# Entry
Amino acid sequence: MNNTNTPTLSGIDHCHLNVDNLANAVKWYEHVLGFSVVTELAFWNESGQGPLTLEDASLTTRLALFEGEGCSKGIAFLATGEQFIQWLSHFECLNIKVILADHGVTFSMYFKDESGNSHEITSHDYTYIKSYFPKVSLGSHSAKKD
# Structure
C-alpha cells in the first residue's frame, strides 16, 4: 500500500478512559503517576462525570477521564490545524464518515475504524480551523460530514 498521500499526525493528544469514580481516579493518577488536572480544560467537566483532562509532569501525556461503565472510547490523535484540514479531505476521499466538533478551545473529528472502534483527531489550532468552519456551532458533535 502506498502511504505517500496520507496526511501526517503530530502524535497522540490524549486517551479516553472510563473510570468507576472520577474523584478517586484523579487522586490515583495524581498520587501514583504524578498527573494533574489541566486547569484550562477543566470546564468540560461541568456534570462531574467528565471529561476531565489530566496531564503528566513532563506535559507529554494526557488522559481524558469519564465516569461511567463500559469500554473506553479510543485514541485521540494530535494534529496541527493544517494537518487537521488534510485529514478531513483524506477521510472524505475514502468515504469515511466524520463528525466534526467545535469544543471552544479545540476542534475534533470523530471517526470509526473497520471494527467499529471510535477514534478522534484533535487540534489545538482552534482559530485556524474555525476560519475554515465558521458556521460550525460551539458544542460537541455539532456537524456531521459524510
Notes: The beta strands are 11-19, 36-37, 52-55, 62-67, 74-78, 98-102, 107-112, 118-123, 139-145. The helical segments are 22-33, 81-93, 126-132. The chain has a mean pLDDT of 86.
